[in-house]
Specification:
Strand content: 25-35%
Helix content: 25-40%
Oligomer: single chain
Largest sheet: 7 strands, mixed
Number of helices: 10
Radius of gyration: 24 Å
Strand order of the largest sheet: 4-3-8-11-12-1-13
Bound molecules: zinc ion
Shape: globular
Distance between the termini: 28 Å
Number of strands: 21
Structural class: alpha+beta
């Protein structure tokens, strides 16, 4: 009976909640091609309907802009819609795929599809149950080869991130895009179906700070042995995004990197960018031989040169590196991959392999935080 009630509530939400602030259903833009004017909709599982259009399981419809309206072609008949059309699932568990530029035939999306016409182009929004979305994001962000404990913590992070960013695309009238700008999402998990189980095992769980607010749940590939303080990478300091020592990731895939840069190019960069006195021998040496210990941000005390800016300008894998040189070149020996703030994925993966619980792993990387149920916090 409770399940039936839940399904009814969910159906109502999926039917009527366009651009809502629901924590159960999200609106995710799934097309990246901003010039989209037509596509093929395939019902992969169960069926879909919109007014008098029925798209049964394994059948397809062509959707196009015609005369400023959305035309849905199915079995020789055409139905026209002004502004938008919602392709609603006929049963729980329905799935669809899309044939159009930017979509892969293996991308399978769950739940409903809202099609909108904007500036004579189509916008596709997946109106999706949050845990279907979270499971898909987890596979896209963490791959298909992790263990269940890792997938649990990544689920908590991705759920927390989604719910704390519901307004990220408010002006465009959806919650989140499906790109790295928000979180990568290409539909349900494709290679590892146990991810959905791990997501459900953490159903409704999110990370909150000491004031009971959803945290900024950032993560990166590998911290190189030490995570970064939030203010060293961004402008603000958060008491749960503190630099922590990480001994788990230092033998993992992205633990180190190397770069060689022509010496003159490197020195001229600092001269031009920061008016740095490269003619002064001792100052010059700071640019040629230096250890950036503990992610220290400054190369020379009087010049507050931020490692994160050097990373951006030279397209480096991280802002954590040592500098050495020979006659012609400067050598950067780097640690980690990514911005370094929050959870280190490769460290967390290693911890989960050593039977450390997902809760303990989250507490290691996010200081002063608690895992709570959504109904325990005020969103
Ligand atoms: Zn976005
Ligand atoms: Zn790490």
């Amino acid at each position: 009976m409770r399940l039936l009630l839940k399904l009814i509530i969910f159906t109502v939400l999926l039917s009527f909640s366009f651009h809502g602030k629901s924590t159960e259903v999200l609106e995710i833009k799934i097309n990246t091609d901003t010039t989209l004017t037509s596509f093929t909709f395939i019902s992969k599982k169960h069926g879909y309907e919109a007014n008098n259009v029925f798209i049964s399981e394994k059948s397809r419809a062509i959707v196009k802009i015609e005369g400023g309206k959305i035309a849905v072609h199915k079995n020789g008949t055409t139905q026209l819609f002004n502004e938008y059309v919602l392709l609603k699932r006929k049963n729980w568990g329905a799935q669809f795929s899309i044939i159009a530029k930017g979509f892969n035939s293996s991308d399978i999306f769950p739940d409903n599809l809202l099609i909108k016409i904007e500036n004579n182009h189509l916008t596709l929004i997946n109106i999706v149950y949050i845990d279907h979305y979270v499971a898909g994001v987890v596979e896209a962000e963490a791959g298909s080869k992790q263990n269940n404990e890792y997938y649990k913590l990544q689920s908590v992070i991705c759920r927390t991130y989604a719910l704390s960013n519901l307004r990220r695309h408010e002006e465009e009238k959806f919650n989140l895009c499906n790109q790295v700008h928000c979180q990568v999402y290409r539909g349900i998990p494709r290679y590892n179906f146990s991810i959905t189980k791990s997501t459900y095992a953490t159903k409704g769980l999110v990370l909150v700070d000491s004031t009971n607010k959803l945290i900024t749940a950032t993560f990166h590939s590998n911290c190189g042995g030490q995570t970064a303080n939030s203010e060293d990478v961004w402008t603000y300091s958060l008491d749960y995004l503190r630099s922590v020592c990480d001994t788990f990731c230092t033998d993992q895939h992205h633990a180190s990197w190397n770069a060689e840069i022509p010496k003159e190019e490197w020195l001229n960069y600092f001269k031009n960018q920061y008016n740095y006195p490269i003619e002064n021998t001792s100052m010059r040496n700071l640019l040629l031989t230096n250890r950036i210990n503990n992610r220290k941000d400054i190369i020379a005390d009087t010049f507050h040169i931020r490692a994160k800016d050097i990373r951006k300008d030279w397209d480096l894998k991280s802002a954590y590196f040592d500098i050495s040189n020979n006659t012609n070149s400067v050598f950067l020996s780097g640690f980690g991959f990514g911005h370094g703030v929050g959870l280190c994925q490769e460290g967390a993966m290693k911890m989960s392999q050593q039977n450390i619980s997902y809760k303990d792993i989250l507490n290691h990387y996010f200081k002063n935080t608690l895992i709570k149920r959504l109904d325990q916090i005020d969103l």
